[in-house]
Amino acid sequence: MNVSIGKSLPWILGSVAMLAVVGAILAGVLLSAGSSQATTAVPQDIFTGTVPTTDPVDASLAPASPEFATVIENEGGNPTAPEQVTVIPTNVEICYTDTQTGVEECKSPEDTALLEDWNPVRTQHTFTVKVTQANGAAAANVPVELILNRFGEAVGDIVSITGGAKVDNTFGNVTTNRNGEADFVITSTRAGDTDVTAYVPGISDADDHKVFAVKHWVDMDVHFPGNATNPAGQAHEMVVLVFQPTAGTSGEDENGYPIPVTALEGVTVDWSITDNEPAATLDSMSMPTNASGQSVVTLNQVSPSVGDNTVNFQVKDEAGRVMFEGSLVKTWIAQEIHVTKTGTAAIGLLANAQYTITITNGGTAPATGLTLTDIVPPGMKYVSASPEPTTAPTEDSGGTITWTLADLAADGGSTDITVTLQGVEVGTHTNSVTATSGDSEASDSAATSVTPGTFAVSKECQDQVLINIEFDCSITVTNNSDSGALTGVTLTDNPGSDMVFKSSNPDVTDTDNPTWNLGTMMPGASHTVTITMQAPTTGNKTNTASVVSDEGVTGSDDDTIEFIEQGPAIHFQIVDNPGRIAIGENTTLTATVVNQDTEIGLTDVVMTVTLPDQLTFVSASGGGSAVGQIVTFNLGDIATGATVTRTVTAQANARGQVQTNGLVDASQLTEPFPAFQFTTIVGN
């Protein structure tokens, strides 16, 4: 049952004089007649009874009487008889509690307005009579007479009296309980008014011993909307249903509202907002019920916000009197997304950075439809993520990663996402992420510095070289970083006008500006290039090798070479040269090569002996080999002051004076040196 705080009726206010007369008649005639029918004698103005001197722990609502008296022990611990006390009632109130709001309203004799309320027919209504003494203490065990006044179209019956007795459906008596209270319940099967009088004979003042109430019974019932929770910013529809209860209902609809047989159309329902923080509006402040008996009003927020609004509604009759009223609390809830992103602050070029994204819902509503978007900046490349994203970029740099995530619980639900990106360009790159759920959105970012590797360049050549003699230099390029790579590495060697580039390993196509593309060099990687050059003039000459990467990282090294005109001092000795031989005889030619230079050692020394046609090669010592008439000796290196000797044996095959020539070549010589000449006479 829905109960409300009612207002006094205008016709009652206009009949105060008549009620006073009726009250006097009732006090002098009806009440005394009722008293004569009571099962207990009515006390005089002062009531003397047996009541406990101390309240029991459980303040029972049962009437106080001698059997409920508290037993008091004396100083010796022996029980004493219940103490007789004098109770003088002086004040009386009649009260009821609104079942909808839980608020109690009371009226006393001096109140000009009656205690007034509306109830649907065939429901029950409980009144409480409260009696107190002059000091405000409860007046227990005090007789009270309860009368439903019958006149005109009056309706209503007493259903029950707690702790008392009905004489008939319109009269009964009861004594107050330990709390000085007495409850009774009334009902009515028909629409109309019930006038209620509570009379306390023990109160001597005739102006104070009666209190009155009016219960208006209407063939109308109301179903109020209950408290509700909605997402912030979402419109909320509220329905008050007004119907005729005596016609009955045919079940409930999907929202739990009764389905009335007879709905009441055109009933005024006023709506209002008690607290308006957060700000909200009603699309109507007064909405009559429609043909379905419904007053439908929509509550809208001015802007989406969390919090509570109290909405009040009053159902009025045709005269504008409030018949039913109530309120509901509308709670607005919302997601409140927070996101943090942390990651590796610095990495080397082509190294990976790890990021952790934490999404938290600090709101009062679950975070549904949660999405996450990660913007990969140019200079970074997507590698992987956990959980797997919905979409991921495939390009070599930049792009967008997205996730569709599970719902997060309200009040602290959270989830973590990890992302791995590779730094593909040098610089500081900011990676931004945005989480969205409904109207709630949050962003964060993390910056990562990408640094390239560093070059170490080493160029090694001979310290001293003869002019016009080819020589080799080696160039070694190393990325000596422990983290950053180098990309698009290019090595250039510039011989300049003082030296001539001859060849290299690996080869190059442009010998005027020899350049080698070394590609990407990861940390610790190394490349070596060998070049062959020649100098046409003497002097100290510096050759420089330089390297550069796409990131603008550079490195270089050089080497200074001394170029000299003359070769080392070489001496050749003819050890054995027989002057005359006969045809068919063998001759042995012996030559010694001496390096008389005190500073320069000979390297890659080769001696060749060319035999004339009149001599046929037979053998050679020290690994010499003949191809046709030319005998070659690879003598290797000859240190300063060292001597190397080799022999050639040949057979004479024709007469004549013949000449055998010898040449010596070495890396330090500008051209082969004519070492010796053997002359031999072949006779009979």
Could you characterize what this model shows?
This protein is mostly beta strands and 684 residues long. It has 2 helices and 53 strands. The longest helix has 22 residues, at 16-37. The model is unreliable at 1-74 (pLDDT under 50).
Low-confidence stretches: 1-74
Question: Strand sequence of the main sheet, in spatial order?
Answer: 7-15-14-9-12-11
Characterize the largest beta sheet: strand count, sense, and whether it forms a barrel: 6 strands, mixed
CA gyration radius, whole angstroms: 61 Å
The residue fraction in helices comes out at under 10%
What value does the average pLDDT take?
84
* Strand proportion: over 45%
Number of helices: 2
Secondary-structure-based class equals mainly beta
Number of strands: 53
Q: Give the N-to-C terminal Cα separation.
A: 159 Å
| Shape, principal axes of CA atoms | rod-shaped
Question: Topology, please?
Answer:
Elements: H1 10-13, H2 16-37, E1 47-50, E2 72-73, E3 79-80, E4 84-87, E5 89-97, E6 104-107, E7 115-120, E8 124-133, E9 143-149, E10 157-161, E11 165-168, E12 171-175, E13 181-187, E14 192-199, E15 210-218, E16 221-223, E17 228-231, E18 236-243, E19 249-252, E20 258-260, E21 268-273, E22 280-282, E23 294-301, E24 307-316, E25 322-333, E26 337-343, E27 346-348, E28 352-361, E29 371-376, E30 380-386, E31 399-404, E32 413-423, E33 427-437, E34 440-451, E35 455-460, E36 464-466, E37 471-479, E38 486-494, E39 500-505, E40 515-521, E41 526-534, E42 539-548, E43 554-564, E44 570-576, E45 580-582, E46 586-595, E47 602-610, E48 615-620, E49 625-627, E50 630-638, E51 643-652, E52 656-665, E53 673-683
Parallel strand pairs: 7-15, 17-25, 27-34, 36-43, 45-53
Antiparallel strand pairs: 1-4, 2-3, 5-6, 5-8, 8-13, 9-12, 9-14, 10-13, 11-12, 14-15, 16-18, 18-23, 19-20, 21-24, 22-23, 24-25, 26-28, 28-32, 29-31, 29-33, 30-32, 33-34, 35-37, 37-41, 38-40, 38-42, 39-41, 42-43, 44-46, 46-51, 47-50, 47-52, 48-51, 49-50, 52-53
